[in-house]
Amino acid sequence: xxxxxQYHISRNYKFSKNAASKPKMDCETILEKNGFKNLxxxxxxxxxxxxxxxxxxxGITKGLFLLPRNSVFCMQYPLSKFFGYITSIVLIKKCKLIxxxxxxxxxxxxxxxxxxxxxxxxKADFIIVHNESMKNWFQENGCTAELVRxxxxxxxxxxxxxxxxxxxxxxxxxxxxxxxxxxxxxSMDKLNPSNxxxxxxxxxxxVADVEQEDSILDYQGVFSPDxxxxxxxxxxxxxxxxxxxxxxxxxxxKYLLYNNPHKTSLYLLCGLPVIVWKKAAIAKFIEKELIxxxxxxLDELDALLANLKTEDYAIMISNVEKIKAKVASGHYLTQxxxxxxxxx
Length: 344
Known about the structure:
Blueprint: E1 6-8, H1 22-33, E2 37-38, H2 49-66, E3 72-77, H3 83-92, E4 96-101, H4 105-108, H5 114-121, E5 126-129, H6 132-140, E6 146-149, E7 169-174, H7 179-182, E8 196-201, E9 217-221, H8 227-231, E10 236-239, H9 250-255, H10 262-269, E11 274-277, H11 283-288, E12 292-295, H12 301-306, H13 310-329, H14 331-343
Parallel strand pairs: 1-2, 1-3, 3-4, 4-5, 5-6, 7-8, 7-10, 8-9, 10-11, 11-12
């Protein structure tokens, strides 16, 4: 099928200091590089939710009106306000529908309605899912679309950053630092590690919850998705969620069994090898590419770092550099989209 026949519709992405909109904006950039034409307004970043919703509505309406019959249409999920509107018009116009998954609400614990969400997914002909674990989950729960794996989120940004090797190691943790998502951080001092400190980047950090005087937690501040790359300095990036040190627990922790956290790509872009829970879906990729350390419990981390050979760390760093170049250029979505287009 020729690329003349491939479309998407851009919309307003509310700009925020957390990285929520960055993956979706990057996906649009990569789609356009791959011959998907935007039928809506230009991508915008109005901070007002009300104004943003109006811009998105009119842009989407314009795009759906212009969408040719029997063409290929790609959209991103979740898109709560406009999902039904877009999919019904796409169906009427007999277009092939591709959905790129960012988050599954049921798996996140944000929705109890598995059937309802699966009905939405089954409107698609093709779905780009995060990884093998998520693909299996979709199949087990009655998804009828063709499923293609992404492997890793891209993160479009020219980065000259490299890991800096300090002893004790500087382990970076970026993301929501509040108790809801990252309660485990406030118990890290109990492990009394001597081989690493934790450098924290993000919002929601509560100094009052840090009990120890000489804490290993070192708060660096909150920055936008593009600024944070220039600010991050460290030797590793940590992916962990929930309130427990010995596993990733709670809804956010369980979600790691299926999703590709966007912060994986952020760390790799900064040149950092990744430390992650062994049961996380992304752990297989980290192990296969030799770009970090997987562990069952955070109480293993101190000994693992104490015994890490300089040459093993150097191998990780050089592998990270290879993946970093792919992430920064949109390689992963490009290969997934190419697969889908071949199947169409």
